[in-house]
Amino acid sequence: MNKKLIPLLLVLVALFQGCRGPEGPPGPQGQQGTSTNVTGTTFDFVDVDFTTANDFQVSLSFDDADIEVLESDAVLVYINWGDVKVGTENLPAYRLLTQTAFLTNGILTYNFDRTRDDLSVFLDGTVNRATVASSYTTDQSFRVVVIPADFAARTSGQVDYSDYNAVVKQFNIDESKIVKIKAK
């Protein structure tokens, strides 16, 4: 090795050795686990009847129900699709709308629209809705989960919104505190 390079390397080593200083203050605590605390709203929209009189559509005004929903919030609507036996208990099974039922005389679709002020759940499809069995049209129950937009954006790709149980876990939803709002 060239003798002129050795002193240069020693100077460089000495310079880099002097780049240490005192440790800085600790940073803020990071997120623990995989769940997020959200100040959104979860409620049940119950006793929903779809009839020819209401054109197979039922609406809920957020103001009348005293529910704060911002225009930018994500609103997820799940239909209670019956009960599933888990161990010794029956638990409700929720499916994300849009949900389709294939009937012998056509297709029935549960869907919803949401505006800044209200939520409408309605029936659609190829079937004559007036002839659909009452088990599909009366006493229906929907679970509505409102997720503030910034949390929805942050968790995009991290949670399967079609899986109600994954949403409950991700957003720490306390199901014992869910309010029931009756359809009018």
Automatic annotation (TrEMBL):
PROSITE patterns: PROKAR_LIPOPROTEIN (PS51257). It comes from the Bacteria. This is Collagen-like protein. It comes from Dyadobacter sandarakinus. The lineage of its organism: Bacteria, Pseudomonadati, Bacteroidota, Cytophagia, Cytophagales.
